[in-house]
Automatic annotation (TrEMBL):
Complexes and interactors: Homodimer.
Location in or out of the cell: Cytoplasm
UniProt-recorded name of the protein: Phosphate-specific transport system accessory protein PhoU
Species for this entry: Orrella dioscoreae
GO biological process, one term: intracellular phosphate ion homeostasis
Primary location group: cytoplasm
Gene3D superfamilies noted in UniProt: Phosphate transport system protein phou homolog 2, domain 2
Length: 241
């Protein structure tokens, strides 16, 4: 490549990084607003979530087009190529996280527009905070190419899964004990499930960061192997989970 081409390539890469982080910031705000809307009944927050979701979708399309142009024009290799491939996959996870955040906001609206005053059967804010931490760490690991932090996100997903299962058990018990709460409890199950799915998407994105840094595909390898490969160790442990 000429010096001019190299400079353009670097600018294009930086634009993709910047836009992806912007997209992540929007999704983070959507999750926060959705949970706040559930807790407070402030339906203006629901509208903010919907507006941000449109911007997330716009960024997904724009970044995807930019990646296609870079691949065609510059034919990147090594870590730059891995970044392009990883971000193209991470875009889907980020956009779907935005979709899940919109589900939370939509259900929050339905809950507060119902005839009965909303009463929290289970507290979902702790679960939401855990998911938000995962998202922030996934974005930070991407920005800094930090495979160790990305591996920590993968491990954190197990805790979110535990909270999802605990909330589900609690809500099922509540519905059995008082069938009048079935409708309200189902709404909360939808929200808890949406948060659990965001956790899954954060885990997927963190795995892609490890791929970017080390070229290692850690999907389905277990948490301990993921942590080992994130440290740059090449020998997997077949019995690790």
């Amino acid at each position: 490549m000429t010096e001019h081409t190299n400079k353009q390539f670097d600018q294009d890469l930086e634009r993709i990084r910047s836009q992806f982080l912007q997209m992540g910031g929007l999704v983070e705000a959507m999750i926060q607003d959705g949970i706040d809307a559930l807790a407070s009944g402030d339906l203006d927050l629901v509208e903010k979530v919907r507006e941000r979701e449109k911007e997330v979708n716009r960024l997904e399309v724009e970044i995807d087009e930019r990646i296609s142009l870079i691949l065609a024009r510059h034919q990147p290799t090594a870590i730059d190529l891995r970044m392009m491939l990883a971000v193209s996959k991470m875009l889907t996870d980020m956009e779907r996280s935005g979709d899940e955040a919109e589900k939370v906001a939509t259900v929050a609206r339905r809950v507060h527009e119902g005839e009965r005053r909303y009463q929290p059967v289970v507290e979902l804010r702790h679960m939401a905070n855990g998911v938000l931490v995962m998202l922030r760490q996934a974005l930070d690991s991407f920005a800094r190419l930090d495979a160790i932090q990305a591996a920590a996100v993968v491990r954190s997903d197990k805790e979110v899964d535990k909270e999802w299962k605990g909330a589900l058990r609690h809500l099922i018990t509540y519905m059995i004990e008082d069938p009048r709460t079935i409708s309200r409890s189902i709404d909360l199950i939808f929200i808890a499930r949406a948060l659990e799915r965001v956790g899954d998407h954060c885990k997927n994105m963190a795995e892609r960061v490890i791929y970017m840094v080390h070229g290692a595909d850690v999907r389905h390898t277990g948490v301990k192997n993921t942590e080992r490969l994130a440290r740059g160790e090449t020998e997997p442990d077949a019995g690790a989970e």
